[in-house]
Amino acid sequence: MAAAASLLLGGHLSRAEPAGAYAHWHEATQILVHRPGEEVFPGLLHPAAALFADTFSLEGAAREHQQFVATLETQGVDEVIHVVDVLLAGTEDPDGEARRALANLAKRMTTLDVSSLGPADREAQRAYFEETVAKMAPGTLVRMVLERPTVVLGYGQCGATEPRTCIVAEYRQNPLMNLYFARDQMVTTARGVVLGRMANPQRAAEREVMKFVLAKMGIEPIYEISPDARMEGGDFFPAGERAFIGQGLRTNAAAIREMLDHDVFGTPEVIVVKDAWQDPREMHLDTYFNLLDADLALLVADRDVPDCDVHQHVKCLKADVWTRNAQGTYDLARENADFVGFLGEKGFRVIPVSVADQEAYGINVLTIGPRRIVGADGVSEAYKRALAASSVQATWVRFDNLKRGYGSADCISQVLRRRPPK
Ligand SMILES: NC(=[NH2+])NCCC[C@H](N)C(=O)O
């Protein structure tokens, strides 16, 4: 509520302290989310093309998202900020800067295809479109951003009773169906926000919208991954002295190299977790690994194999350990170290999670504080007992629809600020 109020009053949310998360188990205080809306509809027609696991009820997913946000608020998260609220903030004034900026973004996300028109009509239609955008309601501009329509103009008949030639249109869209997975477009490190590059073309445009949203919140990314590299937020965990980053299906070595070279982590150590399996069921590090506290981690049981051999066991994890030297650059201190062994060495006890509970998104829980998580229900009683036995306080919400987009609580939350313990 505080968030909505300051958006309305100030027009943006800029603050003295920059965004940042020093450790994944520190108390989450500001979370950016997007409730799935009409932009998801085409994905329900062909889930695979949308990077979804299955079709689902959009109304159901929206309701589940609302309940998730309500749960975060009752669990004490200070601010849960919605992408749409940021887009709309301050746009009531038709001559204001906020509306002008939103209209420009909306125009960049929309295509007016005049290629089958004659030269004079092209110009006239472009001008007409400009005039139309200038009069649009802010909500229409937001739909343009989320649904990314293409209006294909051509010549046709005005109607059955009117044989004149008219301009007619066909409509297509390239919507941001996965925007609700708000973890993935960026990472929040100890130093600030790094804007990623999505691995799949279906999600490529999400970064521009998130960049706009961050700017409006007063958050300037400390770095943006270059167009040739790939990095998605689901692969990253800040962990105090160190940061973990997955290298696999979605995030590549080139992006991690850039992040090291530009010193975006701000940690003495960076652990690159190398996944040879590269299967969509475990597309990001946060689908098979998670951190619940300074000494407690989750790992899918069939990867919890010490001293494994990648040639024998495709889900075996190896880790490259980079350490920061006196010049502030990183050296490769250990290559292909045993990941499970490394966790033990650094004092993390692992709760092994069965493949069935992993598939129920039991690992993709959101850590909102030390040993405090919010996750999707549908996991086994045995798993709930294992968490309780490690003093983990878990709140379970129903995500029957939402998770069929191929993700759960962690994937839908971008924690922009975490508060270190006093
Ligand atoms: N952090 C995550 N695990 N995100 C899951 C993203 C799911 C989304 N449908 C995709 O394929 O990109």
TrEMBL record:
Catalysed conversion reaction: L-arginine + H2O = L-citrulline + NH4(+)
Question: EC number(s) for this protein?
Answer: 3.5.3.6
> What keywords does the record list, in alphabetical order?
Hydrolase
EC class (word): hydrolase
**Which pathway, per its entry?**
Amino-acid degradation; L-arginine degradation via ADI pathway; carbamoyl phosphate from L-arginine: step 1/2
The organism sits in which domain of life?
Answer: Bacteria
Q: Does the keyword GTP-binding apply?
A: no
What family does this belong to?
Belongs to the arginine deiminase family.
| Name recorded for this polypeptide | arginine deiminase
Species the sequence originates in = Polyangium sorediatum
